[in-house]
# Entry
Amino acid sequence: MTEAEAGPEKIRLLVVQTKDAPTRPHVEKWLESNRLEGFEIEITYSNSIGDAEKSLSEHECDLVAIEAIKWYNHNSEERKEMPVATSLPRREESHILVASDRPSHIPYKSIILSPNKLKRRQLRRYRADYRVMSPVAFADTVGMPIPSEEEGLEMATWLEDLRSSGTINGYTLRRHLFDETKIDTRRHKLMVDPREGETVRFLPSPLQGLTLLVSRNGFPSYIADLIGDEEAKIAWEYERILLNSIGKEIHDRIGLIVRYRQIGSLLKQAESEKDLMRSTSLLDAEGEIQIPKINEQPVKYESLIEILIETMDKTGTRTLLLERLIKKDQAEISIRFMANDWETMLNATTAENLEDPRLGPYRPPFFDI
# Structure
């Protein structure tokens, strides 16, 4: 058979799909939006990470698609025999607020339920009058039964029943759960970048929206480069590094995102937020965009990597935020310096102030995480 007559190269993809994960719809959207010429994707499904690992180790499949946070919780360190080959494009990393009106317009002292601890704190920061509770705490307060699953289809249906009956004003949910339960009402994205006229951002939970492609040992790296998304793979690598430097006990109250940013959009954001420091750092003395040079010759300016990490206290009144804009060729070392800086900041703000003859009596930590 000649090369021209050769059939497409087959890739055996195993999708790990659980009730609370958007892996299957992410894979389906990826296949719809990417025409993989020269490749034929053969898809099977499993609901067990253990079975997926066995299939990889026995070469029964080439790639496993799995939600990034589930793979991280199962394997926080890179495994040589089952490396993360690449990642699908990031989708739906932001939670949504299901309510009859925009977050800024719903009634005073609205009752908002959220299974996600980070979102509860971010909503309290957004509007101090909100009465934000976890579904479990609310159910205990009013004395009603609640689904056993923390965040899934049954919980989504239960929350919508409470909202549609007027018992609560709204609730937060992951977008795929909203779609799968076919809830017919308004929903509002809790966006990373503030809307015009607002200053509060809603950083996603770490690794949210990332679907990884974990490969068998020996899977060709050039194929992974062809089918994967570079920005999403970078996000997985650097968010994992930051998570590994933070105690697991506070992972549920950390907001984190790694993404590419173009200088034009950064300047536009700086102008809308009146951020003079950011705008001047991106421009030269003549007010032009700074263009790097090699041997005095200008080179194409690539995207910068933006990293945002935050946490806040229980009331949402105090926020600890660290932000970096990093060039791609400096990212490997810069992300590790950032992890050290974050640890230093967190330790300093959560440390107790002991009694001291010069500094005064004992005081509680500035930041109660």
Residues 331-350 form the longest helix (20 residues). Residues 85 and 220 are 9 Å apart (CA to CA). The two ends are 65 Å apart (CA to CA).
